[in-house]
Structure formats: structure tokens, C-alpha cells
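This section describes the prediction task in plain terms. A model, or a person checking by hand, is given the sequence of a single protein chain and must write out its three-dimensional structure as a string of C-alpha cells. No templates, partner chains or ligands are provided. The sample shown here is typical of the held-out split.
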Amino acid sequence: MKRSRFAALAAFAALITLAVVMLGAYVRLSHAGLGCPDWPGCYGRLIAPSQPQAVAEANAAFPERPVHSAKAWKEMVHRYLASGLGLVILVMAGIAWAGRRSGLPVGLPTLLVALVIFQGLLGMWTVTLLVNPTIVTLHLVGGLATLALLWWLSLRQGRLFVARVSPELARLRPWAWLGLGLVCAQVLLGGWTSTHYAALACPEFPTCQGGAWWPRADFAAGFSLMRPMGLDYEGGLLDGPARTAIHLTHRAGALVVLLYLGIFALVLVRRAGRPVHRRLAKALVVVLALQVGLGIANVLAQLPLGLAVAHNGGAALLLLTVLSLVHALSPPPPAITEAGAAGPAPRRDAA
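The expected answer:
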């Protein structure tokens, strides 16, 4: 398979991953994470029970969690789509190994297979450990990591956003990597906020509670990684000060990311000698403004489901945009000929 076709397959897998991440957010935010109390089936079935007899049998088998058909179907559709993604990634890895002599990469596709397997385990533990927030956060981060790696694979193999990088622009490369690190940290904070049901711990903006900018907060409890096993965490168990600490940290992180990436984008626009760099910088400004706006709107509107899911999608888009900038500021990968010999990298200046 040619590198361009392999890149297209990676981009297709990334699109499926984005859908899985968004659907996972929808399932979690609509309180359907335990819509199926077992794994990998749903009430012991491959299809969520919906007929009266099937529902009665499921209720008898799981009396502690009666069937809610709508929630069960949400969870199972998410599992079906995630399973399809796993199959696509497995096929990609097989193609990569079969075509390794012609220059297809094998390291990253193999890593993606391992990551998807681990994601499956996290999905199982999410159910069996009753949406333990640490596990659910790791599951979200794993999904976004899968998305980022697939997009990176598509960028490098498809040679998207490739243009000559001047020495002046090359000096910005470490700062782009730092921006990517900040976005990853903020995504982790966002996941921690969501899985602890702390999104409305500060129901006001720009203040937090009752006009106070920094009310009482319990950071030790809010950021403890050790949560008791066997408890049902659906709806959250932390008290007010602990949730407030999580929310305030997420807000502070958002301010840091906004200032850093905003300044970085402005510097890049001024120094960019190629249209591709300038356009990516402008795209970063748009996505950054959209994500901050969605965060504020979620607080002011009291977390409507549509806006909350869109905020998760905005985080994914911000991650991909910064990753694209890192790629555009990096040396292009060597072109690989059909015979597998390395050739000079073609210059592609996006117009």
C-alpha cells in the first residue's frame, strides 16, 4: 500500500475515534455509563434488552440495576463503534507489517493496537468498578491519545501541512511542543472535572460562588488518586469544597492555555513565511476561542447536554490543531519510493 493511502486509512480511523470520543462523552454526560451493568455484553446479551420478556429476564438477573432501555442502547452503541475502531486499527497494523519493506511504519500502528487493547480493559473496568473517576478519566485520556496518534500518523505519512521551515520558525518548535503539553494537561484536568461531576461547582462566571473569586476549596480531597473500590460513583461522591478545588484548577488551567497559545499564535502569524503556517496559526485562534466560549457557556447555561458534549469535541479539535502545528514546524519525514528507498522530501507549500 502506498503511503498516501495508508495516511488516508489513518485519517479515517482518526475520524472514527473522534466519533467514539464524542459518543463516549454523550454517554457519560447523559448518565448512561452504567446503562449496561456488565461487560462486554449488556445484561448478559449482545444486544441491549428492549422487548418486555427480555427486560423482565434482565431485571431478574440484575435486580440491583433495573433496565433503562435508552441508557442501555447508548452504552452498547458506544461499545459497537469502539469495537469497530479496534478492528480498523488491527487491520492498519497488519497492513503496516505487510508493507514494512516498502517503507510503511510499524512502530506506531503496533503501539496503537496495544493502546486499543488497554482501552478495552479500561472500558471493562469503568463498568465493573462503577465509573470510578480515576478509571473513567484514564479511559477518556486514552481515547484522545488514540485520536492524537492516528492523526499524527496521517500527518507524517500523508505529508499534510508540509512547507519549508525557516531557521526563525524552527526556533518556535520547542514552544509548540510546550503548548501541546499544556493542552494535554488541560484535557486531563477537564476529564477529572467531568468524571467528578465538578463542572458546576462554580455556577457563576467570572466569579465562582456568591461573587467570590476563590471560595473554600479542598485540593487534597479533590485530587486524591485513591478512591475506595466498590462504591457507585455515578453522580459523584465528593463534597462541595473538593469539587470546587477541581473546578478552580480547571479554570486556572484554561487561562494559562488561553494566554500561552494566544500569544504563540500571534507570534507565529507575524513570523510565518508560508501560508500553511499562517493558516494553522489562525485556525488555532479560532478553535481556542471556540473552546473557551463553550466552557463559559456551559457554566452560564448550567451544563446543557449539547454544549457539554461540544466542549469535549472542542478539546479534541484543539489537541489536533496544536498537533498539526507541531508537525508543520518539524522537519518533514523523508519521502519513501515504491521500492522503499529514501528520496528527497518534496516541497509542498500549501497555498
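For orientation: The first strand starts at residue 335 and ends at 336.
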